[in-house]
């Protein structure tokens, strides 16, 4: 019996043919980033791990793909009037760069509190930047107002079939390079990248599982699909996927095609950024490291699988990166702050320093505290920052200090 038009299933907003067409359209204007096997991360996680280095795009993020695809689909009138977006991140830079390259005027609305470096970078790509509102929602509302007033074309960061098709080209390339991948682990913000990736994965001639990853502080897509109300708030390292409301188009695609969504902790995000720099010698922002964070947080989930994940961006503040690396050294025991109780008498610091010397530990900083302490007037607290070879070396140092009758504790990280 034929299906009546009223009950016929709606055609998907994005198909594999749309993504193939997008790749044909943009392929010679973006970087064909490599997909490489990480032997060390594979040994560490128990999975066979392939990484796609989208942080090697010119603007250091995959967002160029969707932005360029959208720009190339505009008619001449829309191109002449220009495009507008609300973004303080990778979407702004990707759209600005390709719009300028194609001769299309671009306007980016950013919240007033956007870091100056992001404003400068976006202006450097040729966009007109307007600072409006204290929040993203206020900047977004202003961008839509200007769209209506001036006839601009609004380019959404994720909830647009043209954007989704462009983002899906990353997975298209990855699976062309490594057809044996059986599991894709993809970061989720608004859902554009995973919607395109899942569309590609489910069109292959063999089963491919698609797993989404969100920061546990911003479980917006997880909430929507699991009908939960977990809070979306806090300072996450993965600000590129810190989205409070995912798209309606993307949510529908994710609900149909994505097998599972996992939440990752800030600690695993930090560890992943550090590991990628140490092992792969590549700089990745928090959102770009989310896939690896999931492999570290849920090792049993991926053991024995052939996993592909996209390092979707590399735009991380250098000071923040330095902080992440130092915190990782501290957690591994290679950097430590020890709090030691001393008697306030000549030679006290010299004698404790001798223990560090005997154990071959490098002292970096010394902090004396005589006044703001609960100890008696003749007591003092000394914090010593030091550098060791590993956790075992640090443990030997603390044992030697206690054997020398010092009261010592380690100042722990959160």
Walk me through what this model shows.
By secondary structure, this protein is α/β, with parallel strands linked by helices. The chain has 3 domains: 16-60 and 161-327, Rossmann fold; 83-151, Rossmann fold (3-Layer(aba) Sandwich); 332-410, 2-Layer Sandwich (Alpha-Beta Plaits), CATH 3.30.70. It has 17 helices and 14 strands.
Give the tags.
414 residues, Alpha-Beta Plaits, Rossmann fold, 3 domains, six-stranded mixed sheet, alpha/beta, disordered N terminus, four-stranded parallel sheet
CATH top-level class of the largest domain: Alpha Beta
> What is the domain tally?
3
- Strands in their spatial order, largest beta sheet: 1-2-10-7-8-9
Q: What low-confidence regions span 5 or more consecutive residues with pLDDT below 50?
A: 1-8
GO molecular function, one term: threonine deaminase activity
EC number: 4.3.1.19
Protein name: Threonine ammonia-lyase
Cofactor: pyridoxal 5'-phosphate
Detail the topology: elements first, then pairings.
Elements: H1 16-26, E1 35-38, H2 39-45, E2 48-52, H3 63-72, H4 76-81, E3 83-86, H5 90-102, E4 106-110, H6 116-124, E5 128-131, H7 136-150, E6 153-154, H8 161-177, E7 183-187, H9 192-201, E8 209-215, H10 220-226, H11 248-257, E9 260-264, H12 266-280, H13 290-297, H14 299-302, E10 306-310, H15 318-331, E11 335-343, H16 348-358, E12 362-369, E13 379-387, H17 391-403, E14 407-410
Parallel strand pairs: 2-10, 3-4, 3-6, 4-5, 7-8, 7-10, 8-9
Antiparallel strand pairs: 1-2, 11-13, 11-14, 12-13
